[in-house]
Design a protein that fits this description.
Layout (H helix, E strand, L loop, with lengths): L1 H11 L17 E4 L3 E4 L4 E3 L6 E2 L11 H12 L4 H15 L6 E6 L5 H13 L4 E7 L2 H10 L4 E4 L12 E7 L5 H7 E12 L5 H9 L3 H8 L5 H11 L1 E15 L3 H7 L8 H8 L3 E14 L6
Parallel strand pairs: 4-7, 5-6, 5-8, 6-7, 8-9
Antiparallel strand pairs: 1-2, 2-3, 9-11, 10-11
Helix pairs in contact: 2-10, 3-4, 7-8
Length: 307
């Protein structure tokens, strides 16, 4: 595991990282010290984990998203569950990077266990002659530990998106996939010609599980759940307040899950948290489970100032 830390330390001394980071507490620049810590001019220090990531949070954060959930999600994502979505994103990035030079600087904000960023990094590296500087940020230590274990070619950090450890205008592309956003911080981090790519669920997303959930609850609870159908309008309006919308595409397809993927699929979705245990057990025992993936990918850039 210490090899991962050594590899990260070497990367942090490369020119690509020279102006990438800043202290999340005081915004001062940071330097690598003794190959083990990042230290700013105000003496705030952040250790490099032996697993190959940096922990920037001043205190631990408790969430419902535990290690087992992220391990389950990786199994499902490795099966190609999001393949059409990630292919569309990488094609969009490649298309907008034509005739530009230098490495593609890519941030996955709310990266979880790193499955999406790892696929994008591989696809972009394979489909272009340009190097990819990939960074993943998440508030979950368990998620980032798993991400760094599976991909030592990206910069992974445990951090709060509201106080991210990156300098202004550090990234050409920021992806935000089914994760909370901080658009003000995205504006700060985005390069002048950069793009924010947000993915959010449509009304049919995992509708089969929602249907099972409705049918397993009493009528009043079911009515409340049905009101919780994904509504894209508010998301698009909020996104448009901060960025000029350059494109939007809805991806709608069916995905057939076979055993042994059904159990990790159920484990990875918060929808199952509200299901009766008897129903969860029943679903896990199915030989197959077909679900709908309904996602919208919206791409935005900096708004042009009007004088």
């Amino acid at each position: 595991m210490r090899e991962n830390r050594k590899k990260l330390a070497v990367a942090l001394t490369s020119p690509a990282y020279s102006n990438l980071l800043r202290c999340p507490m005081c915004t001062g620049s940071m330097q690598l010290r003794d190959g083990r810590s990042l230290v700013c001019s105000s003496k705030h220090s952040y250790d490099l984990s032996k697993h190959g990531y940096v922990h920037f949070l001043s205190r631990p954060v408790r969430t419902k998203y535990e290690k087992t959930l992220f391990e389950a999600r990786k199994k499902v994502m490795d099966s190609g569950f999001f393949a059409p979505v990630l292919s569309h994103i990488s094609e969009s990035i490649n298309g907008s990077w034509q005739d530009r030079t230098g490495p593609i600087r890519l941030l996955d904000a709310g990266c979880g266990e790193g499955s999406h960023l790892s696929v994008l990094q591989q696809q972009l590296s394979r489909n272009s002659d340009t190097a990819v500087l990939a960074a993943g940020l998440d508030i979950s230590k368990e998620a980032i530990a798993l991400a760094s274990k599976n991909n030592g070619e990206a910069f992974w950090c445990v951090a709060d998106l509201a106080y991210s450890p990156f300098a202004d205008h550090s990234f050409d592309f920021i992806v935000n996939i089914l994760s909370p956003s901080n658009y003000a911080e995205f504006q700060r981090l985005l390069a002048d010609t950069g793009n924010v790519i947000k993915v959010f669920p449509g009304p049919d997303y995992l509708k089969e599980l929602r249907s099972l959930l409705y049918n397993s609850t009493d009528s009043s609870h079911s009515t409340n759940l049905k009101r919780n159908v994904y509504d894209n309008l508010a998301t698009i309006e909020r996104f448009s307040e901060y960025f000029e919308v350059l494109g939007s595409r809805r991806l709608h397809y069916r995905f057939l899950l076979h055993q042994p993927l059904i159990e990790p699929f159920i484990a990875m979705t918060p929808l199952s948290w509200r299901m009766k245990e008897s129903l969860v057990k029943q679903i896990k025992q199915r030989p197959t489970l077909e679900v709908t993936v309904d996602l919208t990918v919206i791409i935005g850039g900096r708004k042009t100032a009007v004088y």
